[in-house]
TrEMBL record:
<dbReference type="InterPro" id="IPR017685">
    <property type="entry name" value="ArgP"/>
</dbReference>
<keyword id="KW-0010">Activator</keyword>
<keyword id="KW-0804">Transcription</keyword>
<dbReference type="InterPro" id="IPR036388">
    <property type="entry name" value="WH-like_DNA-bd_sf"/>
</dbReference>
<dbReference type="Pfam" id="PF00126">
    <property type="entry name" value="HTH_1"/>
</dbReference>
<comment type="similarity">
    <text>Belongs to the LysR transcriptional regulatory family.</text>
</comment>
<dbReference type="GO" id="GO:0003700">
    <property type="term" value="F:DNA-binding transcription factor activity"/>
</dbReference>
<dbReference type="GO" id="GO:0003677">
    <property type="term" value="F:DNA binding"/>
</dbReference>
<feature type="domain" description="HTH lysR-type">
    <location>
        <begin position="3"/>
        <end position="59"/>
    </location>
</feature>
<dbReference type="InterPro" id="IPR000847">
    <property type="entry name" value="LysR_HTH_N"/>
</dbReference>
<dbReference type="InterPro" id="IPR036390">
    <property type="entry name" value="WH_DNA-bd_sf"/>
</dbReference>
<protein>
    <submittedName>
        <fullName>LysR family transcriptional regulator (Chromosome initiation inhibitor)</fullName>
    </submittedName>
</protein>
<dbReference type="InterPro" id="IPR005119">
    <property type="entry name" value="LysR_subst-bd"/>
</dbReference>
<keyword id="KW-0805">Transcription regulation</keyword>
<dbReference type="InterPro" id="IPR050176">
    <property type="entry name" value="LTTR"/>
</dbReference>
<keyword id="KW-0238">DNA-binding</keyword>
<dbReference type="Pfam" id="PF03466">
    <property type="entry name" value="LysR_substrate"/>
</dbReference>
Length: 291
């Protein structure tokens, strides 16, 4: 039996909006209609597709259908717009991006695509592709250079980071000491437990895995502030740190050394005007912001 495109689009809406009620509002139908469509789709597939939780999440069986439902919804909207010769409403585009890109160069790219409503997610750049695999987003800024199945990939450039500390932290922990020895003991600032950038730098310097005391500060602006105020040392974007290093407000712990994080753009492999426009805008923005 063929899958019903309306049921698939409804299933995607439930996952994207997090609940049956929110999906009903987005689709301009009743919650009962949403429930009936999901149950009908589950009967066809023979599996429970969505966990009725807060927010609703796809089951393992449902993950393979989320992306298909989203693709159908996007292509249907674009086809209607083309047929009617005018926009019937902005397409909703879900994108996941790492926090540092979101806080610096990524948002200007969105303003170049006025015919879309964006649903932005954030995650560590090494994990953003997981949402793409699950079908809950249409595009991702990621460190994965191998295309996720059903997606296309394009290199954006590299984000460069410098290991820096406030002068007081440098004086207390690093001045006159071997850098590897100091990194084993000095408190560091990391974004969250997925963030291994500081550990990567410490391993490259020392040749071994180090586990110093670490503060978790899960917001880009607060992370930068924490390092500047002396909570611990950390890796800041070169563009953000260079002026303060030159002025002596921050100390470069290893002049001439840095960590480059290569970034790639992955998105659904569709003939979609919105995704094509977004891809061009993201690539153009990255060309001026990344190495």
């Amino acid at each position: 039996m063929a899958l019903d495109p309306v049921q698939l689009a409804t299933f995607h809406a439930v996952v994207a909006h997090g609940s049956f009620d929110a999906a009903a509002r987005a689709l301009h139908v009743t919650p009962s209609a949403v429930s009936q469509r999901i149950k009908a789709l589950e009967r066809v597939v023979g599996q429970v597709l969505v966990r009725r939780a807060r927010p609703c999440e796809p089951t393992a069986a449902g993950q393979s259908l989320v992306r298909l439902g989203g693709q159908i919804a996007l292509l249907e909207r674009e086809a209607l717009d083309a047929a009617r010769g005018a926009l019937t409403g902005r397409a909703r585009v879900a994108v996941v991006v790492n926090a540092d890109s979101l806080a610096s160069w990524f948002v200007p790219a969105l303003t170049a695509v006025p015919d879309a409503v964006f649903d932005l997610h954030t995650d560590d750049e090494g994990h953003t592709a997981d949402l793409l695999r699950a079908g809950t987003v249409m595009a991702a800024v990621t460190t994965e250079r191998v295309a996720v199945q059903g997606c296309r990939v394009r290199r954006l450039g590299a984000m460069r980071y410098l290991a820096v500390a406030a002068p007081a932290v440098h004086e207390a922990w690093f001045a006159g000491r071997d850098l590897a020895e100091a990194l084993a003991e000095a408190p560091m600032v990391r974004f969250n437990r997925k963030d291994l950038l500081q550990h990567r730098f410490a391993r490259e310097v020392s040749g071994r895995d180090l586990d110093p005391p670490a503060h978790c500060v899960p917001a880009s602006s607060a992370f930068d502030t924490a390092v500047r105020l002396g909570l611990g040392w950390g890796l800041l974007q070169e563009r953000s740190a260079a002026e303060d290093v030159a002025a002596g407000r921050l100390i470069d712990l290893a002049p001439g050394r840095y960590v480059d994080v290569p970034l790639y753009w992955q998105c659904w492999r569709l003939e979609s005007a919105v995704l094509d426009a977004l891809t061009t805008a993201v690539h153009d923005a990255a060309a001026t912001a990344l190495r």
